[in-house]
Specification:
single chain, 296 residues, mainly beta, five-stranded mixed β-sheet, four-stranded mixed β-sheet, 22 strands
Amino acid sequence: DPQTQYRFVAFGNKGIKSVGSISTSINWGEMGTGTVVVIATNRFGCEDTAELSVDITYNLLGQPPVGDTSLCELTTGVKYSVSPVNGETYDWQISGGSITSGQGNDQINVDWGAAGNAWVGVISNALDPVNNKFCESPLFKLPVILHPIPQGTLFPNSVLPEQCQQNTDFWVNDWLMNAKDSLQIETNGIDFSVKTSPFGGATVKRELIVSLAQSGSFIIRARVISQYGCPGEWDSTSIVVNPKPVNTKLLGDSILCQPNISNQFYSVTGNNGSTFQWWIQGGDFVSDPGNANNAR
């Protein structure tokens, strides 16, 4: 009711100041208890009274930090905060990492360290301007778990044996890992598949197989991502799939007449570095052509 009037009375204070029709500002005295009484009088002269007990102490209530509690080890730039209270500053403490900025403020940035149990905590501080005495809260800790980043080499060989282009698959490698972890594979063009099979308990075997249907030089890289979303380092290997041999048309006379039937020259061309095998029916080679691209 806008016509209701309010009057404040405080006990255990050093002064009271009305700062509005429905609020007041109070300077409290020494440690102990105090009381705030508000008397409401409506337009008909009827009164009602409300009372609030106040504990006057130099022990602030404080508050726990807010922020991520489950992260990968070595995560940087993580924010933690409290709700700011007028007149308070904040003493931040940490175990398992380092505070990079924000000490004294209501928000900090943290760089976490190696895997394990950690925590971040905060003490609220204030100065009683009436009695010029220091106030502080207990230390509030927020437990944090730092999960390990997967480690280890995934490919024993950085270069795989060269293969010939064909309509078959090639086994690259297999790994035993936690069933809840995932394997991320990337290539620059070669088709691949990952076969997963149980190995016992919470362990599975994952096999990487690539297709040899396409020729070229390929890079394959892989990394493990833990069940907590922590990615390991990339590891890579390479494989060359040589193209299928391609012969041109056999060049040479296909119709011969006596007596011009000797020392006939035949040839083909193919990819660089190709070798050739020759057969003849109804005649003989003048000399063994070996692996050359021509014969007589």
